[in-house]
Amino acid sequence: MKMNAELDFQKRQSRRRWLIPGLFISLVVGACLGLALGSVQLTMQDLLAALTGSGQPVHEKIVMDLRLPRVLIGFIVGACLAASGAILQGVVRNPLADPGIIGVTAGGGLAAVLSMIVFPQFTYLLPASAFLGALLAALVVYMLSFDQGVSPLKLILAGVAVNALLGAVMNGFMVLYSERVQAVLPFLSGGLNGRSWHHLSFVSPYALAGLCLCFFAIKPANLLLLGDKSAQLLGLRVERTRFFLIALAALLAGAAVSVSGLIGFVGLVVPHFIRLLIGDDYRYLLPISMLGGGVLVVFADTAARVWFTPVELPVGILLACIGAPFFLYLLKKKGRG
Q: TM spans, by residue (predicted)?
């Protein structure tokens, strides 16, 4: 038994050593593909010339104004969603949790839809409103599941109910403002089409603040894995810490939703897969999940843009087609266990 545990620990250590450089290499490859592929195909020589300012003007326009901000936003969105999912999985102590399943994404999505179709004059406040919506949804779920402490099972059940309610409210507003629904459909599908430096500039402060705060969440998240009583004995204020982590997950999900729309399953698939490879230690799980989420969205967005030419498929649809079967597989595997 002891030998098996030591062997398992050594395997995880080995995976940690190659996973980080492997993901960095994958990110570089994904970024190059995202910049080079599209309706106008660029060679690596054309791409390097455009990035250094010595290429053809039309190539520089395509790379610098259209594709580069899209790749950067894709990485930020993926990192935020994966980090949010990893945090929530630790809070509820369930590897099948993610921002979409417990209502956080729906709260941010409802606030964003209201900003776009009810108060279009305040669209510049979209990131802030999406964060507030995600935070309010998280607080409602937190309060509904609180009974002398938060039960992880009640948290998930309350999240599912709130998610359904917010989805119904969102559909209701779309019916009332049916003449403006066309502007909201790309948001509901989840995509990065048309994203520019403007979108990057208004989402970056929220996203970077959340990603930086994640490093302060590593220690408390690890302590929560020990259980509430053990964490309290080690000096952790459990309920205050859980509230901070839920608020942080809401900030990350809200920032991602505000710029990309309702992209699902990244917060489920990436942290869960990374956890299977390297274990539950948040010193490695959280930063590697950020990197893995960014890589996944960059590759998926490029694939959604290139595979279905001349139609550009929203990346949220492609990720749902990947994530839903994976989620069902996890449920079946968990049920057998």
A: 20-42, 71-88, 100-119, 125-144, 156-177, 197-218, 243-270, 282-299, 311-331
Q: Mean pLDDT across the stretch 45-56? A: 86
Structurally, how many domains does the chain consist of?
1
Quote the mean pLDDT of the chain: 83
CATH of the domain at 273: 1.10.3470.10
User: What is the CB neighbour count within 10 angstroms for residue 185?
Assistant: 12
DSSP class of residue 236?
-
User: In sequence order, which residues have a C-beta less than 8 Å from that of residue 288 and are 6 or more positions away?
Assistant: 16, 19, 20, 23, 274, 278
Output the CA angle 119-211-305, nearest 5 degrees: 65
Cβ-based neighbour number of residue 227 at 10 Å:
12
180/203 Cα distance (integer angstroms): 24
| 302/312 Cα distance (integer angstroms) | 10
Q: Domain range for residue 199?
A: 2-336
Contacts of 61 (CB under 8 A, 6+ apart): none
